[in-house]
Amino acid sequence: MSTMREPDSREVLRMALGTVVFAVITVVLTGFQNGWHSLTTVRGVLDVLVPTLLWFVGMLIFHLIRHPRM
Fold it and tell me: Keyword set for this entry (predicted)?
């Protein structure tokens, strides 16, 4: 009988903080590259949102590889 281990709260916090830090870095780099006004457009928001979502999905996949459910 296998038991499913719940993720440690520190792991979840680390993933959340990593995603927030990545989003902030992406915002700053996009602001410097395209001008800060570009962050007020739909494309500017997508330029930040899409890489951040990809980062988050990548972290989830990495987490599931390290801690399989079965």
Answer: Membrane, Transmembrane, Transmembrane helix
